[in-house]
Amino acid sequence: MKKIIAASMFIMSLLIGPGTILASDIADAIYRADIRATNTSYTAMKVSVPFTWSAQSLLDGYYIDSGFTNLALRDSNGQDITFMPGWDTNPWMFYINQISQNASLNYNLYTGGETSMNGKLAYFPDTAGMTVADAASLEPGNNFEIELSGYFESGNIWNKSQVFGVLNDASGLSVFGSSAITYQYTPGTGAIETVLTNNWEGQTFTATSTNYVSGVDLYGAKYGNPTGNSYIALYATSAGFPIGSPLAVTTFVTSTWTSSLEFRHYDFNAPAVLTNGEKYALVLYVDNGDSSNNIRWYKDDTSPTFADGNRVYSTNSGSSWTNVSGEDFGFKIYTNPIICSYSQLTGEHTIKVTLTAGNSYLYVDGVLADSAAFAGSITDNANGWVIGAGGSMPYLYYAKITVGGVLKGSWEWQYAATFSDLSGNGNDATPSFRTTTTDADVSAAIISYNAYNLSAFVVSDDDDGVQFVDEEDIPDMPSGFFATLDPDRLEFLSPINEIITEAGIPLEFIWYPVIFGGGAAITMISFGLTRKLLPCIIAGGIWTGFLSAALGADLWTVLPFAVVAVTELTNRKTVSL
């Protein structure tokens, strides 16, 4: 009997394996959802993936609390994964750093219990990011601090158009200040060039300092009733002609121009760096038009005084260009000075930008990355704040702004259409939510939702907590998610389970015979050695009970062994009498 117990304990130690130190705490988790992500093509990196689940149903059934604190998502190695519950009818989102070609990955989402799990809950913005309306309390002035934490990619991370921004691009992480008109020319003669379809017009200029270009004015008017869109793009040049892809672009509906000759302003979708001494080209082109319906850009073709560039044009949509010296279009270019900078960031970081006492400081993960004297102030304008737009942040943990040493705005993910300002100043944010995968070949779905640890149910006198008093108070499981077997909870079995599943064989067909067959084998081997029935039945029951618990099977599997054991004990008592 001692040998049997020792062998059983050895098997248990092998199955349990070494523990893993984790940031989240699932000790009180009651339920577990199993999620499978699948990639049907080449290896994919940095993918935000949705899966369908009703957060409201989980709230209504008390599977999660109203603050979404008692849930955590982990991968098959037990590492925490960043995720966002879906607001209203939106899907949930989670982040996959890498998934191999034609592969699948398994994840576990734990819910329930009264203890905060400290899961990696975050906000996954769509391309519009999160916007905060302009407010007097949020004007930075010359004494402020902004801080945000999350995953950084390339793009305009935090922006108040024309006056302040944090940009992460190939040039690095940069903080830029208020814009000013740096390059401009107003034509005096009023000659025109017609811009339509394949006829593109451009104006070159030479940068006299290194800074960001954020917006542009064009001097012109529409003729007739042109339709479609028009585009203003900034290009690098070679030999004085535009080359490559646009460095920055802005789009407008062509019909919004009037027939009045005037300057019209547009901000670029994202700022671009101008390098001191380099020549650039500002190009205007339209979707369509004809001789009676077009855009007309006004120029000076007699005695222009703009010395750092000239007109260029293309009749084949930019495939080739012609240089025209002695002609200049009417334009204005707005640039923003670079206050602080650092190398480009990719991955999870926390950044903080401060301006105080005439000096600006940039911190990355709590370490000073750059500082510079900046005696100016961030201009007060009516534009709102935009955070995490254009894919610049796949997910955001929090963002906050302090003005004059007082917290004026603080935002993080909330289960709502509007994120309340946690600073209490009423500067609420309007989020856009990502709802689709960032890689069409990668998808995910819940494959089961099981009772994970019913011993975590507690009776509480706290009116704010969920109370489980008796069986009738335990809510029904959500339909469609219950499974009586969950072998994936033993991580080393996952590859075997994937092979079985891909073969179209139910997991129960394999693992229940292992459970019962193993118990029967141990019973027979023990009986052959000891010729005593009761110890053999107990040994078989230990194997069956433990493996059933480990694989997520119901413990009715030990019932046959219990019945035989009770029968044997009764038989012994009867014989002794």
Q: Classify the secondary structure makeup into a structural class.
A: alpha+beta
Taking all residues together, what is the mean pLDDT? 86
Tell me the radius of gyration: 33 Å
Count of DSSP-assigned helices: 6
| Largest sheet report | 7 strands, antiparallel
Tell me about this structure.
The radius of gyration is 33 Å and the shape is elongated. The chain is an alpha+beta fold and 577 residues long. The two termini are 26 Å apart. The longest helix has 24 residues, at 507-530. The model is unreliable at 1-22, 459-475 and 477-483 (pLDDT under 50). 16% of the residues lie in helices and 40% in strands. The strands form six sheets. Strands 25-11-10-9-29-7-32 form a seven-stranded antiparallel sheet, with no helix packed on it.
Which characteristics define this entry?
single chain; 577 residues; alpha+beta; 7-stranded antiparallel sheet; 6 helices; elongated
